[in-house]
Design goal:
alpha/beta; 434 Repressor (Amino-terminal Domain); Rossmann fold; seven-stranded mixed beta sheet; 18 helices; 49% helix; globular
Amino acid sequence: MAEDASTTALTLKDIAREAGVSLATVDRVLHNRPGVRPDTVLRVKEAIARNAFQPHVAAAELARGRARRFAFVMPSGPNPFMQQIEAYLAEMSGWLSARRLSVEMVATDVFDPSVLAASLEALSGDYDGVAVVALDHPSVRAAVNDLVEAGTKVVTLVSDVPSSRRHHYVGIDNIAAGRTAGALVGRLIGQRSGKVAIVAGSQGLRDHAERIFGFNQVMASEFPDLSVLPVLEGRDEDDRSEQLLARLFGRHADIVGLYNVGAGTQGVGKALTDKALTDKVSSDSGREKRVVFVGHDVTSLTRRLLLQGVMDAAISQNPGHEARAAVRVLLALARGEPILREQEKIRIDIVMRDNLP
């Protein structure tokens, strides 16, 4: 018995139209992702049942053609947030296999433009798509452009190179994130005056530079009694960040605020709390109770510092969403399909001890 042509021709767009929702909402319901109201979930499921619609994801994907390879160029070293992204990518193995996709990790020094550029150049011709945590530097920009010219789809992840020919950026609005951090630091300090320290990985990383820009905007316009000190560059390394910050505390006893722009969080926390270190650089004690400390991302380290009261707030972005979005965007680009921009937009969250997930 032949199947009804109208049933076999149904697509996700048809289901979305009939249910009166977006395509992104149908996708969320099909994959049991949060963020959809119960009545909307019911409406979508009723439309699916009414039309006897069966996505048959694996079969549909296998029918699309050849297998594809994607590379994720990630920072080498122990960056907890980047490790979370890699872990979420590993959890997607079944989803990737159903679509004949493979994702390979390429670890490199993203703080060294020549090393990062060489890592990107080495990928040419071997991958259909590349996602890269990028340094905004002419040599890196040229390497990205060369990949695009050779036919590789390129997505920047977390840190952007907007002047390059990359196809898409997956990450938060980092200027807004920096402004949010500035507002939190200034308001939590209250009526006190003093200095504010900034520790970044590198100002060559676009995400770090934009966060610093946004932070300084708010400090200058809304908190004139607070003086922002020159940025320390810790390369997201714990030991380096700790040493730089410890020396800074030794020179400035009136630091009342601290913004950690990237990783190196364990070192920053140690500089704030290590009593032996405090005795070396100052006769002061209890610094972690007087210095408002705002950083980024919810990791095991930031979670502990928030619970201890050492860290006051974390500006958070969802690493699982970023991992999924980067793969979905690369896949859409490789197929020549539209990108669901609403679905792939990464939100900024404020996490404090009282609302830890």
